[in-house]
Amino acid sequence: MARVNTADERRFDTPKGSRRAPFRRGNPDKDRFGRFTEWVARAMGTPAFLAGLSLFVLAWLLWNTYAPEQLRFDSQIYGFTVLTLVLSLQASYAAPLILLAQNRQDDRDRVQIEQDRQRAERNLADTEYLAREVVALRLAMRDLASKDFIRSELRAVLEELDRTHDEDAANAAPRP
């Protein structure tokens, strides 16, 4: 049986997959839940979260202790059972979410360590290459003439030129 195209698949003026169902399998944004877990882990580790949770528990206790009997929803007689369940539920979700965020951070750290190792290997190879080049330059510099050698050669050439010039001047001078 042939597959029937939906309206979105028949439209050529919109990019393929631009209208996607939010809960479709194979959602292209697979990292959304991971980012959510990191956000939860970051939020739970802040003083604002602790202060908010403390205010929530305090308000719960005050309401269920001092509110009129017919408006209370958690009995003090039973030890605030609903509050205990709410806090247990919060903790039971918080721990796995924090562990998921920690696993994502471990994966990022592992990738960063590998990149650092590769960078260190490249730096070592570059350093070794430059060291070999410096040694080659030093060896080449030994074969070059030194400043003192060039000065002595120039003095010898000047003395030779002076002697030749004196001889030419003596030969060219008129004889009496």
From TrEMBL:
<keyword id="KW-0472">Membrane</keyword>
<feature type="transmembrane region" description="Helical">
    <location>
        <begin position="75"/>
        <end position="100"/>
    </location>
</feature>
<keyword id="KW-0175">Coiled coil</keyword>
<protein>
    <recommendedName>
        <fullName>DUF1003 domain-containing protein</fullName>
    </recommendedName>
</protein>
<feature type="compositionally biased region" description="Basic and acidic residues">
    <location>
        <begin position="1"/>
        <end position="16"/>
    </location>
</feature>
<keyword id="KW-1133">Transmembrane helix</keyword>
<feature type="coiled-coil region">
    <location>
        <begin position="103"/>
        <end position="130"/>
    </location>
</feature>
<dbReference type="InterPro" id="IPR010406">
    <property type="entry name" value="DUF1003"/>
</dbReference>
<feature type="region of interest" description="Disordered">
    <location>
        <begin position="1"/>
        <end position="29"/>
    </location>
</feature>
<dbReference type="Pfam" id="PF06210">
    <property type="entry name" value="DUF1003"/>
</dbReference>
<feature type="transmembrane region" description="Helical">
    <location>
        <begin position="39"/>
        <end position="63"/>
    </location>
</feature>
<keyword id="KW-0812">Transmembrane</keyword>
